[in-house]
């Protein structure tokens, strides 16, 4: 009986590792990178604003992590020449 | 040049105070001058683990507030030359610590000691913040257990943003000290392995302290484990870690009591 139980017993450490990896990927995005995203947003905007007129309200920056791949998505709305003309007019 | 080291973890009960005492004593045993500071205001325990609880007259708060000078507050260890303790206050409120006061004390200690080891309280409140604030180097004490690893990850994030060094844009070195490790349970798959924790936290390893009854025995006696029983498995792990802190390259092992017995037997014969 005890031999059977020994062989059928699943080890728990792999579950701990997987749960931690999932949880920490999320928590790092919430706690660890808040400053980084804000800083990136400011610096990217400053560079682009030198050349193109942009509305800081219409910029979206998001990060995402899937398995080993982390992505940084920067979404900036740029006024079309028409819109620009309208504003100028 | 003085090194300011913070021993921290986020989670309580993982072995910060034990490790502060053991690493402090181990460094002093190699001839370095060392002061260990208890930042756990209101819940001090480093004095008790070091066996100096009846010799506390003045404390960190008294020095921070200017009611006593450093010489009055520092307690010299009776066993190791060059090891000193600066205790925390047991009666005062943790709000009695001030940023300017702590900075002044650390700067004064830098002139006298090779190592300033700050024992952080658990949590991420003021005391933990002051303990890490001036650190050049952080030792993250972690148990191979989910809640400890999670809290260590959080503390690593804080070290990278809230320390003076990080604010200056410099890199703060963070080293993992894995405590209460049981190689047999890890091998059986019932405990996170060293490599699991290293992969998750991605910081370099300072040492692996095996689970051992010697640690409790030493604290019962009020002695850092490296002094109470220097040839025990945890002591050898702490002594190796202290040598790594001094820049030596030492092979990473998990010391065990059995190996020690044979090691000594052969060692003696060879000598």
TrEMBL record, chain A:
Record flagged with keyword Cell division: yes
UniProt entry tagged with the keyword NADP: no
Pfam families noted in UniProt: MinE
Keywords for the protein's UniProt record, in alphabetical order: Cell cycle, Cell division
InterPro entries: MinE, MinE_sf
Family assignment from sequence similarity: Belongs to the MinE family.
Protein name: Cell division topological specificity factor
Organism this protein belongs to: Methylopila turkensis
UniProtKB/TrEMBL annotation, chain B:
Keywords assigned: ATP-binding, Cell cycle, Cell division, Nucleotide-binding, Septation
An MF annotation (GO) of this entry: ATP binding
Keyword Iron-sulfur appears in the UniProt entry: no
Key word Acetylation present: no
PANTHER family: SEPTUM SITE-DETERMINING PROTEIN MIND HOMOLOG, CHLOROPLASTIC, SEPTUM SITE-DETERMINING PROTEIN MIND HOMOLOG, CHLOROPLASTIC-RELATED
UniProt function note: ATPase required for the correct placement of the division site. Cell division inhibitors MinC and MinD act in concert to form an inhibitor capable of blocking formation of the polar Z ring septums. Rapidly oscillates between the poles of the cell to destabilize FtsZ filaments that have formed before they mature into polar Z rings.
Oligomeric form and interacting partners: Interacts with MinC and FtsZ.
Protein name stated in the entry: Septum site-determining protein MinD
Biological source species: Methylopila turkensis
Lineage start: Bacteria, Pseudomonadati, Pseudomonadota, Alphaproteobacteria, Hyphomicrobiales
């Amino acid at each position: 009986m005890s031999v059977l139980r020994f062989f059928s017993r699943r080890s728990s450490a792999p579950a701990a590792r997987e749960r931690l990896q999932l949880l920490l990927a999320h928590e790092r995005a919430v706690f660890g990178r808040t400053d980084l995203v804000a800083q990136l947003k400011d610096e990217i905007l400053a560079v682009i604003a030198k050349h193109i007129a942009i509305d800081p309200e219409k910029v979206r920056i998001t990060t995402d992590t899937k398995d080993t791949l982390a992505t940084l998505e920067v979404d900036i709305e740029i006024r079309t020449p028409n819109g620009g003309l309208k504003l100028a007019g | 040049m003085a090194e300011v080291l913070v021993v921290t973890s986020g989670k309580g009960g993982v072995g910060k105070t034990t490790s502060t005492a053991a690493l402090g004593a181990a460094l002093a045993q190699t001839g370095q001058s060392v002061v260990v500071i208890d930042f756990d205001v209101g819940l001090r325990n480093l004095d008790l683990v070091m066996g100096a609880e009846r010799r506390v007259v003045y404390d960190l708060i008294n020095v921070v507030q200017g009611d006593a000078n450093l010489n009055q507050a520092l307690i010299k260890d009776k066993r190791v030359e060059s090891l000193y303790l600066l205790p925390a206050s047991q009666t005062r409120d943790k709000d009695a610590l001030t940023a300017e006061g702590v900075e002044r004390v650390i700067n004064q200690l830098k002139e006298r000691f090779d190592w300033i080891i700050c024992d952080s309280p658990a949590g991420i409140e003021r005391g933990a913040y002051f303990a890490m604030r001036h650190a050049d180097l952080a030792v993250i004490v972690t148990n191979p257990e989910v809640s400890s690893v999670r809290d260590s990850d959080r503390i690593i994030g804080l070290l990278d943003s809230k320390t003076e060094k990080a604010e200056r844009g410099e890199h703060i070195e963070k080293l993992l000290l894995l405590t209460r490790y049981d190689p047999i349970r890890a091998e059986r798959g019932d405990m996170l392995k060293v490599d699991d924790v290293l992969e998750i936290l991605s910081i370099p390893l300072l040492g692996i302290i095996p689970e051992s009854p010697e640690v409790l025995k030493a604290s019962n006696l009020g002695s850092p484990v490296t002094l109470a029983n220097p040839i025990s498995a945890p002591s050898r792990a702490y002594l190796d870690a202290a040598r790594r802190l001094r820049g030596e390259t030492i092979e990473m092992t998990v010391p065990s009591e059995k190996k020690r017995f044979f090691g000594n037997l052969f060692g003696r014969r060879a000598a």
